[in-house]
Every structure is written in structure tokens, then in C-alpha cells.
Amino acid sequence: MRASERAYVALRADIIEWRLAPGTVLGEVELSARLGVSRTPIREALAKLTAEGLTEPQSGRGVVVSAISLDHLDELFELRTALECRAAELAADRCEPEIFRTLHQQLTNAGELITADDPSRADYYQLAGDLDAAVDAAVGNHYLTQALKNLRVHLVRVRRLGKDNPARLRDAAREHAAIALAIANRNPIVASAATTVHLDNSLRHLLSTTS
Amino acid sequence: MRASERAYVALRADIIEWRLAPGTVLGEVELSARLGVSRTPIREALAKLTAEGLTEPQSGRGVVVSAISLDHLDELFELRTALECRAAELAADRCEPEIFRTLHQQLTNAGELITADDPSRADYYQLAGDLDAAVDAAVGNHYLTQALKNLRVHLVRVRRLGKDNPARLRDAAREHAAIALAIANRNPIVASAATTVHLDNSLRHLLSTTS
DNA sequence: ACAACCACCAATGTATACATTATTTGAATT
DNA sequence: AATTCAAATAATGTATACATTGGTGGTTGT
After folding, report:
1. Fewest Cβ atoms nearer than 10 Å: which of A26, A129, A207, B171?
2. Nucleotide closest to residue B61 (CA–C1')
3. How much of chain B, in percent, has pLDDT values that exceed 70?
């Protein structure tokens, strides 16, 4: 693997998993020492992160980890709603129903996955990711998929803003199940509506637990 | 201005204005000779272009100018419709009506701008750009605006695919005027519908003149 | 003659040295 | 004492030298 890619992956994970807090200054020399590569691949990695929006150019000098402001959560969710509702509609229009029927089943039973044994909720988030991937595949639109991918980078960071709340996660699983069902039934209107409802619930929960 | 930025701007313009055709291989050494800077800023510029989607990594080695396939025009417009309809809705909800009333007037009279004197249609596209900018400002959503900005890069390239057609441009101006009017009237439903209609007309016109 | 393998070459990936610029610190003057 | 200007320093921006990898072409063997 190329050094620039290793640096990019490492930094990206550090930012997404909050090991590098928003506002942290990322100096090239410091990173090149810490990651054991020269400045050139570090610069390349930082450029990629900046293009993704995970870092921002510091006024004229250096880059810093982007802020995740609660003030802008509503903006993030406005874009998310626009993209995911359309994606759900298109998926309902084009999907192989069996795939989503299976996901519906799994999501209906997902309550069992949310246990004290797994505080990271890896299993649950895996399943939610599977639904996203299935929607992407059903939609079959590279541009829309790409836009969603760019967005999800930020959503993973946002996830850590809210406190862990098993009850909310179980509700979210049910809402995901409803979306999967609507898509399986090839009903775009319901799929879009269920997505709208789910995202509104998610946003309100986030805002209520963080403020 | 930094050398990497100059290289980026120059290459971006070359691609958008079709001086560099899709598929063209962009070798670092060749570009560094042509633009008179070393490979380092060239690499930075190419990385930025690749992040934007204007260039793509050539299987393992080098980058090429991205293809603009007619096969994917519908996908591009699917994303465009999702974003612009939502933007129009939100703008209708939040705008200062005067601004859009003025734009409505200007767009209504835009037919005069489309003359043989200006084959590049600079004046008309300027006005269309003003409407986009006004919508962005009224929406006031950084994430949505950014997503639209990423999209418009590709749309400018697509514009050159279709033959110049004054009649279609005059229709498009009327459609834009309808969008501006709906926003000025603070009617989200009509604004979204007018946008949908406009984009469908644009896509069908593009497909009919290129196939 | 065709296919496979090896060697050479060219282009990218990385490191480092050098240039430039912005920030900070210190000193001098008001 | 505070403010401003200048010099030093540290960080980024650029160039170039070196390393590595992938591709191409030629040769050899079947």
C-alpha cells in the first residue's frame, strides 16, 4: 500500500473516531514524524481529507480538523433528507424485492443485537450499513451514490455526538425496517415518507441529547 | 498565487472548456513542462481535480480526463433533480421575495440576450448563474450548496454536448423565470414542480440533440 | 509463428533540500 | 506601559533527486 494512502486511512480513522478532536491543528512535520513517512505523502493525504470536508484550510496556514457544529446539524440533515428520500424512491422503483424483504426481516429482529455486550453497536451499524449498500446498489446511480458517500463521512462523526441510547437505537431499527419494507413492496411514496420520518426522529433525538 | 493553484485553475478550465477531451492522459512530466512548474504542484492539482471528479485514476497508473458518457446523463440529472428541487423548495420557504422578483423580470426579458452577437451565450448563462447563486444564498445551507457546486462542475461540461439552440435557450429562460416567480411567491410546491419540469425538458433536449 | 519470459525504460511514488511566507517575539520609541 | 516595527523562526510551498513499479518490447524456446 502506498504511504500516502496509509497516512490518509490513518488520519481519516483518527478523525472519524474522534481521536483527533475538531479544531486540532494538523502540522505536516509533526504528522510526518508520527506516521513515519515524509511530508510529501502527508500533504497528499491532507489534500484528500480537505476535499472530503474532514479537514479545512486554516486561514492561510495549515489545516485543522473540521468542526462539527450543532448549529449546522439541521443543514446536514436537510441534505441527507433530500438525497436519501430520493434514493429510497428510486430503490423502490428498481429493486429486487427479495433483498429488501430479507433486510426487513433482519432489521425487525435487530433489537436483539443492541445489547450491553457490544457497546460499539457494531452489529447494528453493520446492518444499517447493509441497508444503505442495498439501496445504493438498487438505485444504480453513480452520482447519487457518490454524493451519499460524501455525506456519510460526516454522519459517522455526528453519531458520536449523541449519547448511546439503546431505546432510540431499537426505534431506529424499526424505522429502518419500515423503509426496507416499503422498498420491498416497491412503493416509492411510502419509502420516501418512511425515510423522512426516520431522519426527523434521528435529528430530533440528536438535538435533544446533545443540547 | 500558488503554483499548484495556477496549475489547478488552468487544467480545470482546459477540461471544462473541452480543450482537454475526455480520455486524455495527463502525464505529470508533460504537464510540468507545459505549465512551467515542477511535478509537486502538478500532483496537487491533479489530486484536486480527481477529488472533483473531473479526472480519474487510470488503472493503477496516471490520471485521465473523466468521460462524459451519454449513458450516464440520466444519472447526473437524477441527482440534479433531487438537489435542485429541494433547494428550490427551501429557497421559496426562506427567500427575500424582492430578489427573485427582480430575477423573474430579468429572465422574462432574457430572450433578447440570446442573439447571434454572442455565440457563447455568456450573458444568458450569467443570468442563469445569478439565479443559482440567489437560490444558494436563500437556502443558506452550506452542505446543500457544496453538493450543488460539485454537481455544477459536471453540468458545465455537459452543456457543450448539446448543439447551440437559441429556441431551446429561450424556452429554458422562460422555465427559469417560472422557477424564480414561484420562489418569489414563496410557493415551495410550485417551485419544486417548475424545477422538475425544467430539468426534464433540459435532459430530453440534450438527449435528442446528441443521439 | 505464437507465446511466454526477461530486461529495459518510462512514469509515478517518496524523500529531502531549498524558497518563501506568515507568525511570533523582542526591542525600541512614543 | 503599550504599541509598532523588524528580525528571527518555524511552517508551508516548490523543486529535484532517488526509489519503485508497471508497461513495453525484444528475444528465446516450443
Report:
1. A129
2. C12
3. 100
